[in-house]
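Work Package 3 (structural annotation) set out to generate three-dimensional models for the target panel prioritized at the project kickoff. During this period the team completed the workflow that converts sequence records into discrete structure tokens, so that structures can be stored uniformly alongside our sequence database. As a representative example, we reproduce one entry of 440 residues exactly as it appears in the project archive.
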Amino acid sequence: MLRFWKEYLAEGRSGLLMLRCAKPNDEDLAEYGVDVSFIRSQTGRSIIWGQDYLANHEINALMASAHFFLLPSASLHSVSIMQAMMLGAIPVVTDTVGTSVYVTDTVNGIVLHGMREAIWDKDAVTGILVDRYGKTPILDDDLVSQLTCRMGSLLDRPESYSDMRHRMMSFAHKQFSGQAFSDQFWGAVSSLYERFCESSRVNTIGPCPERRSLLDCMVQSNEWSRVFESPTQPMQRVNTGYSMVWEMGGAFIQAYGNPSFRLSDWSVFAKYYSTAAPPITFAYTLEELGGRYLSFSGHPGEAVINESIDAISRILKPYPVLHRHAGRFWRGVRRVHAYVSSKFLKPKVENPDRADHFNVELIRHGVAGYNIVRHFDRYYAILQKEGAFSPTKAEAGGYSSCLSGYSLEEVERAIGAAQDFEARQADSYQRSPTGTLSRD
């Protein structure tokens, strides 16, 4: 990929290559024939290494802004290919086993040839395909040449690029959408069960009642698409400081505070077989939660307040200005309530630090040597070397440097100001005739 990028820029083209992987060291790059000095000069300019974790919505945003999704690999990565095609990034893949199911060359993507023939052999006796991944380096020169030629040719013909992208997205939304997967899945299950009924002669007279139950199911047929489109692992969607909401498997899951979950605790049956499972609420949409995540304490008596908030929000939606002012007013009420609760209404606990830690969330890690955390409605920045954050220690002035504010931006500005102040102090010390760090 890096060798291709050098050839691409050498043709007088411009662009940005975003690499979602760990950056190899110089020795490894040189071993694969990569110009290390070129990589150094272009890193941060036309080459960006994305090594940190990205949430699914962040990856989606990257793909949606890209012209191409480059994956000239020896193995199939079907989910990534489908994701890119749905979001409008034309896939550039090899002809390795499996890619033909998703990408048709020149129709909805670019297929680089030679990989299948070079590394895949069919066993003459069993008919099983056997891979020889060790042979992939011999294809590098040819793949670089194909990449440069095929992509350059398509970019030089904007109308052809636009037509291919349109065909690709139409195909992807038809074949890879959650609705398409759910139709295929339940169609296959229903067909199998129907054949079973016929072969076992259970359904000799009239339609099989079990089949009707299967088609109805607990999740209605028009709701199954959300199961295939929703994250397969819990993804945080809302954090009010008092309550959290995650999305997983087509449902929104709400819990009060910031509880610890075991894998089994995410089940809808958890409360029936484990008394240690935190109480959670499942809903199809955020609206169905009825404002529960805006609750301060999570007591059932707050249901009326939550329903009132939800009703007011619906009434004011046609009036954006009023809705915005009402939202600001409610946030102010929450802040006042949080302050009063934290100062005067906290129940006595045997270990205050442990109770405070329950409401602490790490927001940013390693910002100019600081960690930024949120505790209720306030943000704090402490030096990484200080260890875990303790609200009690912060209030007592126990940190060598502790910056706070009511917004993330406010704390980030404070960090910048602190850095500038330290830089001026260091410069002043170096200029001092008595300073031991003087340039002389």
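Residues 266 and 280 are 9 Å apart (CA to CA).
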